[in-house]
Design goal:
Blueprint (H helix, E strand, L loop, with lengths): L16 E5 L5 H10 L3 E6 L3 H10 L8 H7 L2 E4 L3 H13 L8 E4 L10 H5 L3 E7 L8 H5 L4 E5 L5 H10 L3 E4 L5 H28 L5 H19 L7 H4 L2 H14 L4 H17 L5 H11 L12 H7 L68
Parallel strand pairs: 1-2, 1-3, 3-4, 4-5, 6-7
Antiparallel strand pairs: 5-6
Length: 384
């Protein structure tokens, strides 16, 4: 049981009816977790076969209805749609009169705070931004994995206690994020989680090219230890030829990549330059061996122009960085929304990445805001 699981009765939200607009991977799981806490899911909006199946598995017996009907039935509405569809969804629902005064309106986008809910707030809704920093599979395992999951929470001060209590009831750990800091917060999660998947997948491909029969088994212990060390020690955990200043080894790496995987060269050079910067600033890499290393790394940049890292420019200009100079805080999960190239709308069942919900697997076509009597009163889709 997490340390916040026991909260005072007066701090707990009243038992609420819960609705979900966008039955992607996130919404049904959050609604199911709220159900375990005593709240009652009453309506779900979903269009695709996958979303309907997902809702049926995680919220059995809960009817599938249009978005406006979800808002009509629920005290608490989860808007779990792709980031780019959220603003239009909120505007459409507000313009059609679907929003009720006093209704809790919760979105799960990492990118946005509560300002994106302003049209609904003007209509009397109570705005909350609750972003679970976890990857979602769209199955019942997600409900279990919410235990101890950090949530990025943004809400008006008067709703802060209610927002944090809802997160705790879902098993999560609230982390307060200021409205102005949401984009940076989301970028940090994307760097730490989304791009980690890219790096691991690329490492597996290169090992396979090198004849390794089970790249995942070879990488598992190494990556597990590296992640644990990085989380515990930050830049002090840097190891490898760049951190040591082994220019000859790095030159061989670049040559081999150019021969066998030229598409990986730009990424290798970019990450090596960043690693050299951080190793120099942290005192792990001394300026003398750094000069030769940075010559190797001064190959073509991704845009075709030659370039050195900032640390390399300082070093080759004869400026030594003190060994105890801090490098600053690294920018450490959400997420790209896949697009159906034929329609330009978010697609549905793309593989989920390991980002803290950045977690964003889109679900249905967001559509267009409708009219009050339209069966589709606003954009709706999958997970933000």
């Amino acid at each position: 049981m997490n340390q916040h699981s026991s909260i005072e009765a007066q701090d707990r939200p009243a038992r609420l009816t819960v609705g979900v607009v966008g039955a992607g991977r996130v919404g049904p799981a959050l609604a199911a977790s709220l159900q375990l806490a005593g709240h009652r899911p009453v309506a779900v909006s979903g269009v695709s076969d996958a979303s309907r199946r997902r809702a049926g598995e995680l919220l059995p017996g809960v009817p599938l209805v249009p978005p406006a009907e979800v808002l009509a039935r629920a005290d608490l509405v989860l808007l779990t749609v792709p980031d780019d569809a959220l603003a239009d969804l909120v505007s459409g629902l507000a313009e059609t009169g679907a929003v009720r005064p006093g209704q809790l309106l919760v979105h799960t986008s990492g990118r946005f705070g509560t300002a994106v809910l302003e049209p609904a707030t003007r209509a009397g809704a109570l705005p909350l931004a609750l972003h679970p920093a976890m990857t979602f599979t769209g199955t019942s395992v997600d409900v279990q994995r919410l235990a101890g999951c950090p949530f990025g929470v943004t809400a008006p001060e008067e709703l802060r206690m209610a927002a944090e209590a809802l997160v705790i009831e879902m098993g999560g750990e609230p982390e307060w994020i200021a409205e102005s800091d949401r984009p940076l917060y989301h970028a940090a999660l994307a760097i730490g989680a989304n791009y980690l998947v890219t790096l691991v997948a690329q490492a597996k491909e290169l090992l396979a090219k090198a004849g390794v029969r089970a790249p995942d088994r070879m990488l598992g212990p190494l990556l597990g230890a590296a992640l644990d060390n990085a989380l515990r020690s930050g830049d002090a955990a840097l190891t490898g030829p760049v951190a040591r200043g082994d220019a000859g080894t790095v030159a061989v790496h670049v040559a081999e990549l150019r021969k066998h995987a030229p598409q990986a060269v730009a990424g290798y050079l970019a990450m090596a330059r960043m690693t050299a910067d951080r190793a120099l600033a942290h005192g792990l890499l001394k300026p003398e061996p750094a000069a030769e290393l940075l010559d190797v790394l001064a190959g073509p940049a991704p845009d075709g122009a030659a370039g050195r890292s900032a640390a390399g420019q300082a070093t080759t200009a004869g400026e030594r960085l003190p060994s105890d100079e801090s490098s600053g805080t690294p920018t450490d999960a959400l997420s790209d929304t896949p697009t159906d190239t034929s329609s330009g709308t978010p697609t549905e069942d793309e593989p989920e990445h390991d980002t803290p919900h950045d977690v964003d697997a889109p679900d249905d076509d967001p559509g267009q805001p409708g009219t009050p009597d339209s069966p589709n009163p606003g954009p709706h889709g999958g997970d933000s």
